[in-house]
Amino acid sequence: MFKNILLAYDNTNGSKKALEKSVELLAHNKEANLTVVHVTDKRDYTEEQGTEHFTQSLDVTHTGLGSLDAQNLPHSYDNKFEDRHPIKKTKNADVFQSVRENLESRGIHANYELLTGSEADSICSYANDHEVDIIVVGSSSKTGIKKWFLGSVSEKVSHNCASSILIVK
Asked: What are the respective helix, strand and coil percentages of the chain, to the nearest 5?
């Protein structure tokens, strides 16, 4: 049936339901591999430092000035942003920790991948590169105007990925 299952997880109610459906799929196919991915915005975190340091830069290439790092800007825009506006540094690690504990308590081993960029694009790209048979995603709770303007990740994944998609409501 399915050899490689990809679970898109972001700790929302929809992704928690998708986690349960992934466990059901694994129960029917003991040989399957499960990979849990979480996508973060690459503007918020440096790849080599993960969630440890907030990075802030100003891209002014359209002005001909090149790219300015935050450390070269006046103090109100410097790299002390994190001190004045703390972010949860372990946000992504916490997402994986909760899923890992949930799965390991059931005797399930999974791989965990932190991706950066657009959620749908990153999920589809990973799925294509790793021969994923099925992608399991939770349905979003976006409705009305918000859904019309922004769309939902599950909707974008279903339209843009070559793999089979299971959207869990």
From this structure: 40, 20, 35
Closest CA to 102 of 9, 40, 39: 9
Distance (Å) of CA 2 to CA 12, 27, 138: 25, 11, 19
What span, in angstroms and rounded, lies between the C-alpha atoms of 133 and 141?
26
- The amino acid occupying position 65 is L
Indicate the pTM of the whole model.
0.69
CA-nearest of 1, 19, 13 to 136 is 19
CB 100 within 8 A of CB 35: no
Per-residue pLDDT tens over the stretch 153-169: 888 898 889 999 999 98
Q: Do residues 107 and 137 touch, judged by C-beta distance below 8 A?
A: no
Rg from Cα positions in the chain: 18
Collapsed DSSP state (helix, strand, coil) of residue 6? strand
pLDDT digits (tens, 9 = 90+) for 59-112: 343 444 444 444 444 433 333 333 333 333 445 667 889 899 999 999 999 999
Distance, in Å, from the CA atom of 83 to the CA atom of 54, rounded to the nearest integer, reads: 10
